[in-house]
Amino acid sequence: MFRDQGSADARIIARILEMSHGVDNPTTELLREIVSVFYNNGGSWESFFKSDPEQSKLLKMCIRTVMKKKNG
């Protein structure tokens, strides 16, 4: 499973996708798209990992946005 390898950001996104959207093994393309949306909306992994609640909210919003787009 992707979450068992790779970068910390990918593991976090994969875990949120699994828990909130039922996606067990996200593709690299999906992860990259989520990261891109996160960055384009002012996301910062440094702030996220320093437990900034606004960054956590932003990441979850970006994941929801990408998943809505993917699911039509």
Brief overview:
By secondary structure, the chain is mainly α.
Q: Pick out the low-confidence regions.
A: none
- How many β strands by DSSP? 0
Task: Kindly estimate the percentage of residues that lie in beta strands according to DSSP.
Answer: under 5%
Number of self-contained structural domains: 1
Number of helices: 4
Q: Largest sheet, described in full?
A: none
Measured as a percent range, the helix fraction is over 70%
Question: What is the approximate shape?
Answer: globular
Structural class, from helix and strand content?
Answer: mainly alpha
What is the averaged pLDDT score?
Answer: 92
Distance between the termini: 25 Å
Please provide the ordered H/E string of secondary-structure elements: HHHH
Instruction: Tell me the Rg in angstroms.
Output: 11 Å
Structural notes for this entry:
With 72 residues, the protein is an all-alpha fold. It has one domain (2-71). The protein has 4 helices and no strands. It has helices spanning 8-21, 28-40, 45-49, 53-71. α1 crosses α4 (53-71) and α2 packs across α4 (53-71). The termini are far apart. The relative contact order is 0.16. The mean pLDDT is 92.
